[in-house]
Amino acid sequence: MTIWYGGDYNPEQWPKEVWHDDVRLMNRGGITLATVGVFSWAHLEPREGEYHFGWLDEVLDLLHANGVRVDLATATASPPPWLAMRHPETLPVTAEGVRLSVGSRQQYCPSSPVYREKARELVRRIVERYADHPALELWHVNNEYGCHVSHCYCDVSAAAFRDWLRAKYGDVDELNRAWGTAFWSQRYDSFDEITPPRAAPTFRNPTQLLDFDRFSSSELLACYRAEVAVIRERSSVPVTTNFMGFFKPVDYWAWAKEVDIVTDDTYPDPADPISPAYAAMVRDLMRSLGGGAPWMLMEQATSAVNWRQQNAAKSPGQMRAWSYQCVARGADGILFFQWRQSAAGSEKFHSGLVPHSGTDTRVWREVEQLGQELKALSDRVGEAAIEGSRVPSSVAITLDWDSWWALEQPASPTDVSYVQTLFAWHHALTSLGLAVDFVRADGDLSGYRVVVAPAHFVATDGQLDNLASFAESGGALVVGFASGITDEHLHIRLGGYLGERLRRTLGVWIEEFAPPAAPDLAARGSGIAPPVQLSGDVFGGSAEARVWSEVVRVEDAETLALFTGGALDGWPAVTRRAADAGTAWYVATLPEHGALRRLCESILSEAGVEMPGDGSLGEHVELVRRGALLFAINHGPDSTQLQFDGSDILSGEPARGLELPSQGVAIIEA
Question: Among this protein's residues, is 368 annotated catalytic?
Answer without folding.
Answer: no
